[in-house]
């Protein structure tokens, strides 16, 4: 059985600010980032769906330490976002002074952009990651 | 299924910048374990080793075979187990299954890591390999960051003001340092105050330096044997009476369940069911406190406290030696140290000594302990629970 969305296809779409997910015809739930099966019911009856990229912050952390070769990105705010369609994804938060990030961020509405991690010698190439900013209301 | 006994053990002092290689650290504790078991290397039928990052820290893969050869266990089957920080626990659990099934009678289980040889930047990079490399690492994922995310989520979910949670987290670290000072094998032998925790370097909000375990070098080993073999070798058998192991995927895929870790709860359930015990029966626990918030989440996931209340329990002293459920009386990962391949084996070594009543001299014996529970978390998705009994 083949993947409906390979990482390379997800990555290519994210570089165009398009977020690809999988809608399950069995349970109706959406999986993103993509997997082989539905993350809720393990069903394989999946359709590719382009997601809105909108959601709300469910948690956050501002890091002052990072992996070798990525020190120039610090400080960096990492967020878990619950997408409108249901799944959670990890990304970064832009538009915000890390010193002013606090618990009030949880619940804030955000929308998707992206930035590319160029990769390092262990990562088998680059990878776009979601970078969120405050949603326009 | 046969009953399986933990015989002897060996444990290095956990440290920074070990002058010894991984093979050397592991060989020394393995010989100690074999001698304490009243056995010789010729009695060892198989070797299981937990090791995670030897490839990066020393350019040494397949440490298990070089180690087996170094101690004179020539040509025995030697297998390396890799499940990030739970690697040693995987090695232990599989050795149990092999003996319980009747295939082997005596298996040597070891674990070793020499992480500090990598330095902090490369160590942080390689530890992050146990998160999702494609979908989460690009966002700057590290394990401190993962627990920063869980800490904020925990405060939000249970309605605990962050300042209160931070004090509870500090209480976890302070207690661990106190007991590590009584453990000669502990890496950090230094009293820690709440103020020092709260004033330490901010690693990733709200995790500060003293909410986190150190990078560590060290090794531990135990010998497991069938009950029949053990009967001739020891009059203080400690049995493995319950095991559980589960897996889980990337952090975001665990979404609605967070900050609880479903996989831990399932692994613990397996172990309790097999042992015919409930959390109330546990007398002493060694759990995976890679970060202070991780200890709080673990204690709740193991059923030792209600959700949202474990931090208060630490503050009230319920987790102390004389408390309702003594936790991490070894100093925990925080202060005993966390050489990741060895950690699970070290937990087993510690609980075996607690259940034999051998820690009175160190001033950290849980009186009359009968049942000990160990919990290990590897990366985003290897969970192991093992229950030990002295009856
Ligand atoms: Zn489904």
3D structure, described in words:
The relative contact order of chain A is 0.19. Chain A folds into 2 domains: 1-51, no CATH class; 53-137, OB fold (Dihydrolipoamide Acetyltransferase, E2P) (Beta Barrel), CATH 2.40.50. The longest helix of chain A is centred in the first third of the chain and has 8 residues, at 7-14. By secondary structure, chain A is mainly beta. Helix content of chain A is 6%, strand content 40%. Chain B has 2 domains: 4-119 and 215-238, Peroxisomal Thiolase, Chain A, domain 1; 141-211 and 240-389, Thiolase/Chalcone synthase (Peroxisomal Thiolase, Chain A, domain 1). Chain B has 14 helices and 11 strands. Chain B has a 9-stranded mixed β-sheet with strand order 3-2-4-7-1-8-11-10-9, sandwiched between helices. A two-stranded antiparallel ribbon of chain B has the order 5-6. In chain B, a hairpin with a 2-residue loop joins strand 5 (202-204) and strand 6 (207-208). In chain B, helix 1 packs across helix 3 (63-70), helix 4 (87-100) crosses helix 14 (343-356) and helix 7 crosses helix 12. Chain B starts with a strand and ends with a strand. The model of chain B has no long low-confidence stretch (mean pLDDT 98). The chains are: A mainly beta (137), B alpha/beta (391). The A-B interface holds A 7, 11, 33, 35, 39, 58-71, 73, 76, 78, 80, 82, 87-92, 101, 103, 106, 117, 120, 122-124, 127-130 and B 120-122, 124-125, 128-129, 133-142, 144-145, 148-153, 155-156, 162, 201-207, 249-253, 255, 258. The complex binds zinc ion. The site of zinc ion has 8 residues of chain A, from loops.
């Amino acid at each position: 059985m083949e993947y409906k969305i390979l990482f390379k296809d997800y990555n290519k779409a994210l570089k165009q600010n398009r977020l690809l997910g999988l809608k399950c015809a069995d349970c109706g739930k959406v999986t993103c980032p993509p997997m082989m099966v539905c993350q809720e019911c393990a069903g394989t009856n999946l359709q590719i769906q382009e997601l809105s990229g909108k959601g709300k912050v469910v948690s956050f952390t501002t890091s002052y330490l990072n992996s070798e070769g990525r020190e120039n990105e610090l400080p960096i705010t990492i967020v878990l976002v619950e997408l409108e369609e249901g799944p959670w994804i990890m990304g970064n938060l832009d538009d915000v002074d890390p010193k002013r990030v606090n618990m009030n961020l949880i619940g804030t509405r955000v929308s998707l952009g992206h930035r590319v991690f160029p990769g390092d010698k262990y990562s088998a190439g680059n990878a776009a990651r979601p970078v969120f900013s405050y949603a326009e209301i | 299924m046969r009953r399986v006994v933990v015989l002897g053990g060996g444990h290095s002092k956990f440290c920074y910048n070990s002058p010894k290689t991984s093979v050397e650290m592991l060989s020394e504790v393995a010989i100690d374990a074999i001698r304490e078991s009243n056995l010789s290397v010729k009695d060892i039928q198989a070797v299981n080793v937990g090791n995670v990052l030897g490839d990066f820290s020393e350019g040494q893969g397949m440490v298990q075979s070089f180690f087996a050869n170094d101690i004179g266990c020539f040509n025995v089957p030697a297998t390396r187990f890799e499940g990030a920080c739970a690697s040693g626990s995987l090695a232990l659990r599989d050795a149990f299954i092999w003996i319980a099934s009747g295939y082997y009678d005596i298996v040597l289980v070891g674990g070793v890591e020499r992480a500090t040889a990598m330095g902090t930047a490369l160590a942080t990079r390689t530890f992050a390999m146990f998160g999702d490399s494609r979908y989460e690492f690009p966002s700057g994922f590290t394990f401190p960051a993962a627990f920063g995310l869980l800490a904020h989520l925990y405060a939000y979910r249970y309605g605990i003001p962050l300042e209160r949670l931070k004090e509870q987290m500090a209480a976890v670290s302070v207690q661990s340092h106190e007991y590590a000072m009584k453990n000669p094998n502990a890496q950090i032998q230094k009293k820690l105050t709440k103020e020092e925790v709260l004033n330490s370097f901010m690693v990733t909000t709200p995790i500060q330096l003293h909410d986190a375990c150190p990078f560590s070098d060290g090794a531990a080993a135990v010998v497991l044997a069938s009950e029949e073999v053990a009967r001739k070798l020891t009059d203080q058998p400690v049995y493995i009476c319950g095991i559980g192991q589960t897996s889980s995927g990337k952090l975001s895929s665990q979404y609605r369940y967070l900050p609880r870790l479903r996989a831990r709860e399932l692994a613990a359930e397996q172990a309790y069911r097999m042992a015919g015990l409930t959390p109330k029966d546990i007398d002493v626990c060694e759990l995976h406190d890679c970060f202070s918030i991780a200890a709080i989440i673990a204690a709740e996931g193991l059923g030792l406290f209600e959700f949202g209340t474990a931090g208060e329990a630490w503050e009230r002293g319920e987790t102390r030696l004389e408390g309702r459920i003594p936790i991490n009386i070894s100093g925990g990962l925080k202060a005993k140290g966390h050489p990741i391949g060895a950690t699970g084996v070290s937990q087993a070594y510690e609980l075996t000594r607690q259940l034999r009543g051998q820690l009175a001299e160190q001033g950290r014996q849980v009186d009359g302990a009968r049942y000990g529970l160990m919990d290990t978390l590897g990366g985003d998705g290897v969970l192991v629970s093992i229950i030990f009994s002295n009856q």
